[in-house]
Every structure is written in C-alpha cells, then in structure tokens.
From TrEMBL:
Record's keyword annotation contains NADP: yes
Protein name: Short-chain dehydrogenase
The species this protein was found in: Pseudomonas turukhanskensis
Keyword Repeat recorded: no
InterPro entries from the UniProt entry: NAD(P)-bd_dom_sf (IPR036291), SDR_fam (IPR002347)
GO terms under biological process: fatty acid elongation
GO MF annotation list: oxidoreductase activity
Keywords, comma-separated and alphabetical: NADP, Oxidoreductase
Coiled coil (residue ranges): none
Length: 269
C-alpha cells in the first residue's frame, strides 16, 4: 500500500468524481492514503463524498466544482490544485448526455461533449503529465468506453470522442512507459452508474432499474490493479480471456509494433 502511495501520491485528481466509478476511485485511493482532488459539477454530491473520505480515511480532500466542458476548465482546475503534488490523474467524466442521432442534437451541444471528452482530456494530460514525467513516477488513467472501438448508431460523437481519448492514451503510454509514468485506458462495456440507469429509464429500456450491471467499485478496483499493465484494459473481455490472447493485449502489441515501424519515418527518440 505504501508503494502505491509513493508511486501515485500524495495527491490524486479525479475528474468526474461525484458518483459512480469516479466516487469508487476516490474511496479506493483514500483507503490507500492518497489525498484527493474531487472535480464535478454538483457541489452537494462532492461535499458529501468529501465528508465520507475525511471521516473514513483521514485524508485531505479538495473540492473543485467545475464544468469540465468549459474552455477554461483545465486552467481553473490547475489554479485550484496550486502547488499540490499530483501523482495520479484520473479522467472519468464523459458519458453521453444526449444519445441521439447526429442531426437530432445541436452542433453546440455536440461541441460541449467534444470539449469534455477531447479538449479537456488533452489539456489535463499535458499539464498533469509533464510534472509526472519530470519526477519519473505517476499515473494517468482515462476512463473510456468500448464505444471507442468503432462507430455506433446514435452514438456518433460519443464514439468519436472516446476514440480520441483512446488513441491519445495509447500514444502517451508508448511515450511514457520508460519514464516511470503508467498510462491506462479503461474501456468499459457497461457499468452501474446513476447516469447509465437514468439514460436507460429515459430510453424506455425494459428492466432499466433492475437489470444486473457490473459494479462501479469492481471496475475501479480492477483499473487500479491493472494501472501498470497499459495501455488498454477492455472490460469485461480482458477479465474473461487468457491475458496473453486478450483484446487489450492485442492493442498493446499493435501500439508497440506500429511505434517500431513508424520510427523509420519519424525517428526513435
Ligand atoms: N455507465 C456506463 O455503462 C458506461 C459505459 C461505458 C463507458 N462509461 C464511461 O465511464 C465513465 C463514467 O460513467 P458515468 O455513466 O458515471 O458518466 P458521467 O455521466 O460522465 O458521470 C461521471 C462523473 O463525471 C461528472 N461529470 C459529467 N459531466 C461533467 C462535466 N461536464 N463537468 C464536470 N463533471 C462532469 C459527473 O458528475 P456531475 O454530474 O456532478 O458533474 C460524475 O461524477 C464515463 O467516462 C463514461 O463514458 C460508462
């Protein structure tokens, strides 16, 4: 446990922490002694989680109430974090609040999903990743979706933006793996979160509230256990098959092979 804290502490930032997988990460990290910066839009939910973490684990907790789709989100987050040393950055926000055909949602609304799932992910990876690489330790964990793996009807911008984060994370893994910084994309099939249940109810899915779904706590635990085995963990497939022949392993080999082949043209530095 102290190894984990040394490698990924003393502070973790969880962007999208007020419920579901993000809140589960906060509990698991606080239990390992990491102080937590919790980011989301709903101040009350964040305040309740802060009290739980402080009482149960005696860690420090900083709240940042922020819409991560806003163009100044990263700047404001950095200002709030100040000189705290962040050893682990988790980006968990990013569900699709629309779930419509492409033309049935406005360009402005798709633009906010684009910012949330692409621009802010890029900005945060840069500003939090740089000091980790300089220190030679740390972790970047991007919570993604199996929707990143290809286009899906009614999920055009969700698949597109999740694909952005997947490629970014895999490339950073290839760049940082020898610099002591672990990168993991967690590609989720489905997980039980309030957002998912609300969407299922809104879309009139049968058994929306009773259907059995993987638990947020289990996925968060799995991702922390596998943080050093990037770049990509595909749930549930990677937990079902032999790791050596799993789809996540295939992506790892793809990144290594492509990086080696591309070096002929773009250099090996
Ligand atoms: N649920 C699933 O079945 C499923 C399947 C595949 C992948 N995933 C991925 O897993 C992650 C978590 O899923 P979820 O269903 O809990 O997603 P979510 O609706 O994006 O919520 C996750 C967290 O992010 C926060 N958040 C959402 N939009 C935000 C914004 N604009 N600014 C700041 N914070 C924001 C939410 O809190 P606030 O509302 O308080 O801001 C919440 O704490 C997402 O990246 C999603 O794409 C989920």
């Amino acid at each position: 446990m102290s190894d984990f804290k040394h490698r990924y502490g003393p502070w973790a930032v969880i962007a999208g922490a007020s419920h579901g997988v993000g809140a589960a990460f906060a509990h698991l990290l606080a239990a390992r002694g990491l102080n937590c910066v919790l980011v989301a839009r709903r101040a009350e939910a964040l305040a309740a989680l802060k009290s739980e973490l402080e009482v149960q684990y005696a860690v420090e907790v900083l709240l940042v109430t922020q819409d991560l789709s806003h163009s100044d989100a990263t700047e404001r987050l950095i200002a709030a974090v100040g000189d705290r040393e962040v050893g682990l950055f988790i980006y968990n926000a990013g569900g699709d609040p629309f779930i419509t055909r492409f033309l049935d949602t406005s360009v402005e609304d798709w633009g906010s999903l684009l910012s949330l799932n692409s621009l802010t992910v890029m900005n945060c990876s840069h500003v939090f990743g740089a000091p980790m690489v300089a220190r030679g330790r740390g972790g970047l964990l991007l919570v993604g979706s199996q929707a990143a793996l290809g286009g899906i009807r009614k999920l055009a911008m969700y698949t597109a933006t999740k694909g952005f984060a997947l490629n970014l994370g895999e490339s950073l893994w290839a760049e940082w793996k020898d610099k002591g910084v672990n990168v993991l994309n967690l590609l989720i099939g489905t997980v039980d979160t309030p957002t998912m249940r609300d969407a299922m109810v809104k879309l009139n899915i049968p058994n929306a509230l009773t259907m059995s779904l993987p638990k947020a706590e289990d996925l968060a635990q799995l991702a922390l256990d596998e943080l050093g085995n990037g770049p990509t963990l595909i749930h549930p497939e990677d937990t079902l098959s032999n790791r050596a022949s799993s789809p996540g392993q295939a992506r790892r080999l793809h990144v290594l092979n492509k990086s080696a082949k591309a070096a002929v043209f773009i250099g090996n530095d």
